[in-house]
């Protein structure tokens, strides 16, 4: 029988940590209440205590701590979201799993392949629920396009063209942060490229190989960070730029799917004027579907259903027939739309369902093994780039 209460903690109270904190707070407000336990908001941790304290206050968590070991040691916590720098994921995840906690870890799984492999192995030997936060799978408009592709409404899918262009690093005065450290491929590719690549596989199936891997680091030095920088956005120090940027500002590569479809992906963190531009087009033999995060509440469809002469791209508003939409908000009718924020809530609900064994038809959160596979794709892009754009198979 499902427990009456489950207790949750969030490690990391930066940009995405606050979004997890909010999602756990909302998790019982969507898709009905039957079989859903009380979710107790137990603790928020951030190494910079003022962030933990303000997030705990804003989102109604009972306590705040600066040391993640407190969360590991706490015997009143069942589920933990890890939402800190990628290089910290493995150590924290390992300790939490050992302590018997269910762990939802943010993407990318880590910042290097060895740690990602280790996490997949930890998962295989664990008797707790583990998952990775590829939350765009829960965006109603993206999930609808995946459904259209899967049911054959677009015909045979032939091409996927995706981009995730952001400008959080466009200003050279934005200080150094964890996002700018690590091997090539752990920059824009790991940060936002992991999302759009996962969306590509979600819609078109497994990627078999990549080629044309290319990286660019446009701003190679940044000023030092002030205490408690979050999200890598906006904060400037005015100090001289002395810290070295180690990884990619821009990444581009081609993809070859197992199905025979092909495509390309381009990602950036220095795309001037585009704070958060995830866009893609999927072309099939009988139709085309497109999505733009800036127009989150709609998809663009072009197919053979309209009479010849009246064909062309049409705007389809997201609505209750799209996945996650019905019951997914307090205003679940067409035209209201959803944002990136709600997909975190749906993700937490799916994770909660797995923890308590409740089947509400929500697809489970992807595993750490899947996260390891995603890291192998990123590694293949890096190897392609290092070898002049050579084709590299995903092993
Ligand atoms: N799924 C998504 O849409 C999405 C969006 C943004 C970020 N992310 C992921 O979330 C993670 C965090 O990203 P972010 O943008 O929130 O970063 P961030 O820099 O805004 O926040 C990270 C926080 O971790 C804290 N921190 C640093 N070391 C710590 C430690 N040892 N213990 C506890 N806290 C510590 C920092 O003080 C900071 O507040 C990354 O893995 C990132 O890839 C996912």
UniProtKB/TrEMBL annotation:
InterPro entries per the record? Gfo/Idh/MocA-like_OxRdtase_N, Gfo/Idh/MocA_oxidrdct_glycsds, GFO_IDH_MocA-like_dom, NAD(P)-bd_dom_sf
- Highest taxon of source: Bacteria
- The GFO/IDH/MocA-like oxidoreductase domain is annotated at 143-289
GO molecular function, a single term: nucleotide binding
Pfam families linked to this entry = GFO_IDH_MocA, GFO_IDH_MocA_C3
**Name assigned to this protein:** Scyllo-inositol 2-dehydrogenase (NAD(+))
- EC numbers listed for it are 1.1.1.370
Residues covered by the Gfo/Idh/MocA-like oxidoreductase N-terminal domain: 7-133
């Amino acid at each position: 029988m499902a427990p009456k209460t489950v207790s949750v903690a969030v490690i990391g109270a930066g940009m995405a940590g606050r979004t997890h904190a909010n999602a756990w707070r909302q998790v019982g407000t969507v898709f009905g209440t039957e079989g859903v336990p009380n979710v107790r908001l137990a603790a928020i941790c951030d190494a910079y205590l003022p962030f933990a304290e303000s997030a705990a206050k804003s989102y109604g968590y009972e306590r705040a701590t600066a040391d993640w070991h407190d969360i590991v040691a706490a015997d009143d916590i069942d589920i933990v979201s890890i939402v800190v720098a990628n290089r910290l994921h493995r150590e924290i995840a390992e300790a939490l799993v050992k302590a018997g906690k269910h762990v939802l870890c943010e993407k990318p799984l880590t910042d290097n392949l060895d740690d990602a492999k280790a996490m997949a192995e930890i998962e295989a030997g664990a008797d707790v629920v583990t998952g990775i936060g590829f939350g765009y799978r829960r965006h109603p408009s993206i999930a609808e396009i995946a459904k259209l592709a899967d049911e054959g409404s677009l015909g045979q899918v032939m091409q996927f063209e995706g981009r995730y262009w952001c400008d959080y690093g466009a200003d050279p005065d934005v200080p150094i942060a964890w996002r700018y450290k690590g091997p090539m491929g752990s920059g824009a590719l790991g940060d936002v490229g992991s999302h759009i690549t996962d969306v590509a596989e979600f819609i078109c199936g497994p990627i078999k190989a990549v080629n044309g891997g290319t990286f660019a680091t446009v701003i190679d030095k940044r000023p030092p960070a002030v205490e408690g920088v979050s999200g890598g956005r906006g904060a400037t120090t005015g100090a001289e730029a002395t810290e070295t940027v180690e990884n990619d500002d821009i990444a581009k590569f081609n993809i070859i799917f197992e199905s025979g479809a092909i495509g390309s992906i381009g990602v950036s963190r220095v795309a001037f004027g585009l704070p958060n531009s995830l866009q893609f087009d999927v072309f099939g033999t009988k139709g085309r579907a497109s999505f733009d995060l800036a127009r989150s509440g709609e998809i663009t469809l072009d197919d053979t259903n309209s009479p010849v002469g009246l064909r062309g791209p049409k705007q389809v508003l997201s609505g209750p027939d799209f996945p996650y939409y019905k019951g997914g908000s307090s205003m679940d009718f067409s035209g209201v739309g959803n944002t990136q924020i709600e997909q975190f809530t749906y993700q937490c609900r799916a994770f909660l369902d797995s923890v308590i064994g409740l089947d509400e038809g929500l697809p489970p959160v992807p595993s750490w093994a899947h996260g390891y596979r995603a890291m192998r794709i990123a590694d293949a892009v890096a190897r392609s780039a290092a070898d002049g754009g050579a084709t590299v198979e995903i092993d």
